């Protein structure tokens, strides 16, 4: 079995858990990898990606701020990446010497939600209308919720996102802005940066109750809740951070490169208690 040269690129990169996660996957699957974090400035992005793969690289994870601009360096993309205009996983096809791009974020979220919440026929509220929201909506839609409801502090960003997501062939799911929705909300997903620099507080009242499930795409590295989940816990006990999504999207990347999907039963203590 051959060795795999892998890595993650970002600016900054010191915070990334990807090396730890993928090395745990490698140990578990008995696949040999060399997975390194690379601090890549935006002006060096294209040359780094090309040099990495020319010099024997097999795969890269891509984090902020490179998820969009990395596409300038690839030969082809999955249909999902073409739609959302961003990628978090690059792979080198040695037989054709081509770099391919995919996104595992939305699929990782859906995978993590499987044992927490049933998306089918649900009303799902997404807070945020930026790249994070766009990256997860297609995968959520594939699970056939009744409504995907969008809300954002900057209202002018919602309608362009809805128009971008418009699909005349869509049958099972409506995508609407919150002002056009009446009913109970079953799941709230935080895809905003609100709360990064202090307590989370949403600008309006939401139609939520003690059965509502709350999910934060962000995660904390300890037993404390994220600011969003601190806020959500006053309404419901069904609160989850994005740690499971992080592990599941990484597992999908690992399979994309190696052909082997690892076990995703990794806990925070596996990563934070060295």
Can you characterise this structure?
The protein has 274 residues and is α/β, with parallel strands linked by helices. It has two domains: 4-103, Rossmann fold, CATH 3.40.50.10860; 118-240, 3-Layer(aba) Sandwich (Rossmann fold), CATH 3.40.50.720. Helix content is 30%, strand content 20%. The strands form two sheets. The protein has a six-stranded mixed β-sheet. A six-stranded parallel β-sheet has the order 9-8-7-10-11-12. The relative contact order is 0.14. The mean pLDDT is 93.
**Spans with pLDDT under 50 lasting ≥5 residues?**
none
CATH topology of the largest domain: Rossmann fold
Beta content? 15-25%
Overall geometry comes to: globular
Radius of gyration (Å):
19 Å
Distance between the termini: 29 Å
User: Structural class of the secondary elements?
Assistant: alpha/beta
Q: For this structure, what is the CATH homologous superfamily of the largest domain?
A: NAD(P)-binding Rossmann-like Domain
According to DSSP, the number of beta strands is 12
């Amino acid at each position: 079995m051959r060795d795999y040269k892998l890595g993650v690129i970002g600016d900054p990169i010191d915070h990334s858990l990807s090396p730890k996660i993928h090395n745990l996957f490698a140990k578990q699957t008995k696949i040999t990898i060399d997975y390194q974090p690379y601090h890549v400035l935006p002006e060096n992005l294209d040359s780094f990606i090309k040099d990495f793969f020319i010099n024997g690289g097999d795969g890269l994870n891509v984090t902020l701020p490179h998820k969009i601009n990395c596409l300038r360096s690839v030969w082809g993309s999955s249909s999902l990446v073409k739609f959302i205009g961003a990628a978090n996983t690059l792979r080198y096809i040695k037989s054709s010497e081509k770099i391919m791009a995919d996104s595992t974020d939305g699929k990782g979220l859906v995978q993590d939600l499987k044992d927490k919440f049933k998306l089918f026929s649900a009303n799902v509220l997404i807070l945020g209308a930026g790249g994070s929201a766009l990256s997860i909506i297609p995968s959520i839609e594939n699970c056939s919720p009744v409504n995907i409801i969008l809300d954002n502090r900057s209202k002018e960003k919602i309608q362009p996102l809805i128009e971008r997501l418009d699909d005349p062939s869509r049958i099972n799911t409506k995508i609407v802005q919150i002002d056009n929705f009446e009913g109970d909300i079953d799941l709230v997903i935080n895809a905003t940066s609100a709360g990064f620099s202090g307590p989370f507080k949403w600008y309006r009242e939401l139609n939520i109750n003690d059965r509502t499930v709350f999910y934060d795409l962000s995660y904390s590295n300890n037993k404390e809740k994220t600011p969003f989940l601190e806020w959500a816990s006053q309404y419901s006990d069904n609160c989850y951070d994005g740690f499971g999504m992080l592990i599941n999207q990484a597992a999908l990347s690992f399979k994309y490169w190696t052909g082997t999907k690892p076990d995703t039963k990794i806990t925070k203590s596996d990563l934070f208690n060295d």
